[in-house]
Amino acid sequence: MSTLRAQDRLQPALLDRLTDDDVDAKKESPESRVISRGRLRELVLRDLAWLFNATSPGLIDWSRAPHARNSVLNYGLPPLSGQTASTIDPLVLAARVKQAILDHEPRILPASLSVEVVLSEAQMDHHNQIGFRISGQLWAQPVPLELLLHTDIDLETGRVAVRELNR
Q1: Domain count of the chain?
Q2: How does pLDDT run across 84-132, given as a tens digit for each residue?
Q3: Domain contains 5
Q4: pTM of the model
């Protein structure tokens, strides 16, 4: 198998590259500049959990600054804590989840992204939870990685749990 070019190797996100995990080392090792496919999955899962647990501003008139709507100023999901599942349209929320991923997680290939509402027995027992199945592909060379996640949004607390489903 041929060696991948530098631009084709999996690299950590900017935040992870700027984080110094080995403060005693005078120089960064070449191995720390690339990550494995498994590590990429872990980092994307962590970053999606951060995204979903962040709260974007409430109702804002973005007409004077339309580009700000998709910027980090609008990072996160809309305020959800304290609402009830009966007052939220799950399809609208699924669209918001998908848009948040498209706006803030460039490692997931946009054309491959799918967000579907999941109504399970457990969630029916906990009336203030909404579940989503998120699938897509992570950019990687030589072939993309499949990503399959389950997300539970607890509307009472606003907490969002993200876990990877078995492939």
Answers
A1: 1
A2: 888 888 999 999 999 999 999 999 999 999 999 997 666 556 668 899 9
A3: no
A4: 0.81
